Structures are given as structure tokens and as C-alpha cells.
Q: What sequence folds into this?
């Protein structure tokens, strides 16, 4: 199931037992979309896609990254270190349509996590608060045996959000990857921002919550 159009993706409510691994059959029923160059929207040298679904049974939201990967560049080993300076997967989530306030989540290839809250003041200056930890957020990031693909599966409890997923409603999100290699630095996004900057909230896409039975 691919995203409905260029800036919207459907988040279907699916039932799953436990934490689904990257090859679980449930991902075949989840919507997926491809990341592109953050500035131009052009196809990236290495393919990266993400998938998403919700599980009302577990009260969790699940994401999966699947990324072609020929080199790992990540030396961070501690929670909330500046993972964004090296290889990383990122999701920005705004669950109340207030684009001056959103959650920033990151996971490195070594499964180190970063969580913070972004806010903008009256002068539109951006501020990062890393003192808030996302309780119950779980990730599993691994490289396949061939060394050519990295996958990262995330589980986010509904309780993290002020406005939990609900059919018929939407959140604003954008999804990113930073990849370093001998080719240089690649900045990828689901929704291009038009500049080498992820923090352009007005370009966030729409995550539409739907019942599976309604599709």
C-alpha cells in the first residue's frame, strides 16, 4: 500500500501481537512512502522508504524505515547525543496542528535514540528542549547480513501524545534520513523542504488516521 498522494499518507489501524520485527507480514498492509532529496525532491542515490500503521489494540503507533546503506557513520553511544550530525533516521510529529510545537525523534544505526521538543517563539526563533523523554518509545535498528540494508522499527505509545490517533483525524509529520558516505552527506525527506534544512514545518505532510474497514 503506497501513500495516497504526494503529501498525505494513510495510517491504517491494524492488529498486531507484540513488537513486529522488520519482516512481519503486517508491514505488507501498512502504507509506505519513499524519501527524496530534501531540497530538490529528486530521487536519492540510495533508496529509503518508511511505513506506518496504528494499533488500537496495543495503543501504539508503529513506523518502519527500510534503507539501502553501503556505509555506517555513527559514533554516538549515549541517549540524546547530537545524532543528527551523523547517520540517523528522524521523524517530526505535530499532533495538534500547531506547527510552532512538535516532537523530534531520532534513531541512529546503532539504535541510539534522541527525543526532543521543538518550539518557535514570537520572533520565530527555534528552540530545542531535550529534557522531555518519550516514555515507552521502543526502537529496533539493525543491518542485514549482506550489509546493504538498514531497517529501523519504532513503537510509540498513544499516551505520549495530547491528541492520540483517531480515525477521521490527521497529524502533521515529516520523515527524514541523514546518510554520510564517501559521496558526501545526503539529506532526505518524505516532504521536500526546498532547502538543506529539515525544520520547515509548513512543509510537513499529513498523516491520516483511517479504519482498515473503511478502505
A:
Amino acid at each position: 500500500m503506497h501513500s495516497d498522494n504526494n503529501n498525505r499518507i494513510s495510517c491504517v489501524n491494524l492488529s498486531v501481537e507484540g513488537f513486529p520485527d522488520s519482516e512481519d507480514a503486517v508491514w505488507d498492509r501498512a502504507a509506505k512512502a519513499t524519501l527524496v532529496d530534501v531540497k530538490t525532491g529528486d530521487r536519492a542515490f540510495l533508496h529509503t522508504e518508511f511505513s506506518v500503521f496504528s494499533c488500537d489494540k496495543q495503543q501504539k503507533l508503529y513506523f518502519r524505515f527500510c534503507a539501502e546503506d553501503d556505509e555506517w557513520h555513527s559514533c554516538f553511544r549515549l541517549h540524546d547525543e547530537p545524532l543528527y550530525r551523523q547517520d540517523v533516521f528522524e521523524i517530526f510529529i505535530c499532533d495538534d496542528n500547531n506547527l510552532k510545537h512538535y516532537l523530534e525523534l531520532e534513531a541512529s544505526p546503532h539504535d541510539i535514540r534522541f527525543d526532543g521538543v521543538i518550539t518557535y517563539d514570537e520572533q520565530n526563533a527555534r528552540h530545542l528542549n531535550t529534557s522531555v523523554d518519550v516514555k515507552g518509545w521502543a526502537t529496533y535498528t539493525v543491518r542485514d547480513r549482506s550489509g546493504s540494508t538498514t531497517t529501523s522499527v519504532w513503537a510509540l505509545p498513544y499516551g505520549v501524545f495530547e491528541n492520540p490517533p483517531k480515525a477521521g483525524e490527521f497529524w502533521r509529520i515529516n520523515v527524514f534520513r541523514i546518510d554520510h558516505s564517501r559521496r558526501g552527506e545526503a539529506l532526505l525527506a518524505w516532504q521536500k523542504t526546498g532547502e538543506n534544512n529539515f525544520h520547515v514545518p509548513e512543509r510537513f505532510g499529513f498523516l491520516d488516521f483511517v479504519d482498515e474497514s473503511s478502505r
